[in-house]
Amino acid sequence: MSQDKTTLFDVKEIDTEMTRQVLKEVYEALEERGYNPTNQIVGYLISGDPGYISSYKDARTKIQEIDRAKIVEILLMTFHKNNK
């Protein structure tokens, strides 16, 4: 790394990528257990009830560590990006 350039550290981007990774892991865990991941995640996001998410592969614990509003924000940003 060059000494004459400032390196930028973007916490928001790291946070977004971590959230995406958790959503991917939760989605895959629900799918492996035979659930409809979309329905289960939507149920959780709307109600806040973690019972919608299986504890398989720590999916419930992982998703609860992320603010639900942050999940919705990332989903909307991704939707908008993919539909331009």
List keywords for this structure.
single chain; mainly alpha; 84 residues; elongated; 64% helix
Describe it.
This protein has 84 residues and is mostly helical. Helix content is 64%, strand content 0%. The chain has helices at residues 11-32, 37-47, 59-64, 68-82. The N and C termini lie far apart (36 Å).
Summarize the structure.
By secondary structure, this protein is an all-alpha fold. It is 64% helix and 0% strand.
Largest sheet, if any?
A: none
The assigned structural class equals: mainly alpha
* Global Rg: 16 Å
What is the mean pLDDT? Answer: 92
What is the 3D shape? elongated
Overall helicity: 55-70%
Segments where pLDDT lies below 50 for 5+ residues? Answer: none
Report the β-strand fraction as a percent range. Answer: under 5%
Q: Would you count the extended β strands for me?
A: 0
Order of helices and strands: HHHH
Compute the separation of the termini in Å.
Answer: 36 Å
What is the count of DSSP helices, taking H or I runs of 4+ residues? 4
Write the layout of secondary structure elements.
Layout (H helix, E strand, L loop, with lengths): L10 H22 L4 H11 L11 H6 L3 H15 L2
Helix pairs in contact: 1-2
